[in-house]
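Changelog-adjacent note: as of this version, every example in the card shows the full chain rather than a window. The one below runs 722 residues end to end.
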Amino acid sequence: MKSVVDRNFNLMASLEAYVDSSYLQGKTDREIMTYIASLYNGDKSSAYNLYIAPNGIVKYVYPAEGNESLVNWNLLTDPRINVQLQIQRAVQSKKMTVDGPFELLQGNNGLVARKPIYENGTFWGFVSVGLDLDKLLFDSGIKGKGNEALQVAIRTPGESAFYGEDRVFQSKPMLATVELSELEWELAALPQSSVLKSVYQQIGLIRLAYSMVLMLALLFYLYIMRQRNTLSIVVKERTQELLEANEDLTAVNEELTAGEQELQQYTRRLQESEQMLSYLAYHDALTRIYNRAHFQTLLKEQMEYDYAKTSSLVVLFFDLDNFKMVNDSHGHHIGDMLLQEVVGRIQRAELPYHTLARFGGDEFAMLLKDCTGENPIQHLCERLLDLIKDPFIIANRSFFVSISIGIAQYPHDGVTWETLLKNADMAMYVAKRETGSSYTFFNKQMETNSLTKLEMGNHLRQSMERNELEIVYQPQVDCTLGKIIGVEALLRWNHTTKGYISPAEFIPLAEEMGMIVPIGEWILRGACNQMKDWHNRLEQPLAISVNLSVRQLQDERFVDKVCHILEESGLEAKYLEMEITENVAMQDEQVDALRHLRNLGIAISVDDFGTHYSSLSYLKRFPVTKIKLDQSFVRGVQSDDKDRAMIKAIISVANSFQLEIIAEGVETEEQASFLVENGCRQIQGYYFFRPMNADQIVQVLGQSLQPKLVFMEAVTESKNKL
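Full-length structure tokens:
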């Protein structure tokens, strides 16, 4: 089988080389189709089709007969989830990917290999080879004449058999593994029941033969008894022989009886196993509710039934907010118990849903029927949110969790079960991203935003190669000293066609895509080199602050990379400060990395202090030297008593821990005056300077700050009065 697949997939290399040679420029459609036909026929291929898809749209297909539905098909918008996943893997890896078996557009089942083509680093399109599953099995000798004596089954490891029956794998079969590029299949074979029946018939004949021997022996014994006067000695000898033979036959019979009993027990265990497998095929082993496979099957059936009745179905897709934190902090066994408690609470509430299923991890789906409007849906979602709000008591601990719910309605939000689930999932992530512990109805803008996010992600991957990323610097002022004492390095993305893109849009995307690590390293190297250049040109050395992502701390070599960058730039460690954001929980390994950085002499500051995760815990656990007062508090200085009280409290905390404190986002003189008067003399914000390029920094270092520091006279007088 592997040789048949490899022989057909090898056509991909010839097809790719043909496209790479000129990217079809200067070639007519007829020339291209002639080449594909010669490639297909010249290699005596058994492939189902070969095609080329410029920009992801299938344009050239051979053979044309039977593949008409593929022509002008846009792979990038293909509604099938597995196809989209394969497309994403291909685009991300830039390698050939294989998927299958699954139902092709032509209606048959098959395998599809795709390879993305890039022209000068830009996505050009795909080349693809498709195989028909039945023809593959015939060509491999698995189906057809010659295999009538064997029961054969094939499956992907961990999934149900897509050829043959699952029970073959449970009956001590002969096993083999076939690796097909990214795929791995398991083959199992057993003798047919007719062969086993023949064996049982032979056993029956043996038993009959033994019974006949016993009968003949008995007749012979009676005959000897009649002749005892003349053959007494012979009778005794023969009798002894018959007794011994009888013992042997009895032993054989007992063995056969024991074997029969063992076979009956094995058959019973096999039936029990089949029942358990049948149960597990449609139920989640942990929570005992339906699983993804059963929910998808049931949803498809209900959609077909409801289509005829023109009624309404609703899919709710939800998961637990911050469930990963529970697993990481308390262990997976606590996480499993939490999932069981959540399901139990929902079941006991007797909500008016049709089906509840666990899709895996902490993801669940709920099917509603006969919903006449949004009000009943909203009411049920609010009941769900209220159910989960109360704490869960597990191992004598209280766990507070919440859920985010995405809602998709049939047929308004999708006419296929795949689309309905995809859109509900998309709505759930919007709810989670916006507020958490809420529900959101799907709308078309979400789908547009998803495609926009995918496009932005592709552009972001190319931004460093295109030199679109820039570093700007915002000065930090010590109002008491009346001068600039440092700068913060900030990232900007100047897209070649869209202009400057907000960091609030692309920084979370970089975190999600894992690109924040190379980008962060690039910023750190550029900032250190720039600061060392300023040190060489300026009389008074400044410090530079660089934002640090938790993902960078997950790199075991991060500390070594920082040391290398400092050595490479020549910047002393005491002039470098790294800012960590307090919106995530850190593991012990990441805390150790911060301690190593602090031991090198690098300052550690907490950004956005007081707004996110366990602020005081950070000050206790981490080697912090400075805290950065978040601009959300600063903005309320002029109007909110609570913000003013919060600022005073945070400044008091900083003084108690003997830490420096700096306020960011300061935009007015009144804000600056209040902060300095209450003990925060370091200021960063538009009141003094906006972020600027390196040349502008050199210019402002020579400017006087006195016009902006007039308020210091009033602050000094106020302190003297005290």
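Structural remarks: The longest helix spans residues 228-282.
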